[in-house]
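queue> holo job accepted (guanosine-5'-diphosphate)
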Amino acid sequence: MEGHVLALCGGVGGAKFAAGLAAVLPPEQLTIVVNTGDDFEHIGLSISPDIDTVLYALSGLSDAVRGWGVADESWRCMEMLERLGEPQWFMLGDRDLAMHLARTHRLRAGETLSGVTSDLALRLGIAAAIAPMSDDRVRTEVDTEQCALPFQRYFVAEQCKPVARAIRYVGAEVARPSPAFSAALTRRDLAAVMICPSNPYLSIDPILAVPGVRAQLERVRAPRVAVSPIIAGKALKGPAAKLMGELGVEPDVVSVARHYRELIDVLIIDESDAARAGDVEAVGVKAVTAPAIMRTAADRAALAREALAAARQSKGVAV
Ligand code: GDP
Ligand code: CA
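queue> job finished
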């Protein structure tokens, strides 16, 4: 395995795959660029949910049962916040709070989100590079039938129930890619770009909305592989399939292929979607069928190996 791998990632689904890549690649060969469109400020704290999810997944701290946040969590601070009349719609575990406190005070002291993220990763024993998509402020907003909702209001408080009409990445038009992202995109030894199985609209599109990113991915010579977050017409978690329906596309692997058409060479689809491989290829994207549901660390590593092998085969380069 030679060359560098750049992975674009959102939260829970993407982080599982990113953890698989981290398990099978030498750390110096991997840069994970994470969506920050979900970031928000809450009771004075700067919260970066997708970065946190990736940090917890790669450091082995994720709570596998709950499916988000930190394992061995406690909620004492949240209980006290409730007594004090503070909002309860966003859950803040005690261990998770430490992350938000560390990030918030460092940002206030003038560090960049890139600097904070790479140091926190290092402190948690993560050797691969993890970078925000941008150090500039980008905020995803969902236009619903009733009103425009900031992302966390839509996702957490409203539980994605309002019908979406459009999605905006406020601030993206003037954001710059983070230094590590820019560097990875232009590396001469870039051997593969991976689009993790994250929500295409809420997790990957904000990254692609940063000026220059889409154009660079379109012309990058390295093979580009996406893993479908849609399996058998459904999202394993979260609103991806519901959103696709509301935005007027069939929630299936063919729509995922069409969505990423200009940006990927290969789409990994689950075995249960094997019958759709021909339809994916009709879109102009090579389909590779593999077990794409990640329940265990072994599943994550196996899917990462499949994706790397697919990259290697797609253009005959040394990955
Ligand atoms: P969020 O930011 O926490 O919402 O997470 P992401 O956007 O990174 O991931 C959400 C997507 O991950 C959903 O569309 C899920 O279908 C997908 N997902 C979750 N687990 C898996 C898995 O094991 N395999 C695949 N292929 N997709 C998954
Ligand atoms: Ca997210």
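queue> The radius of gyration is 19 Å.
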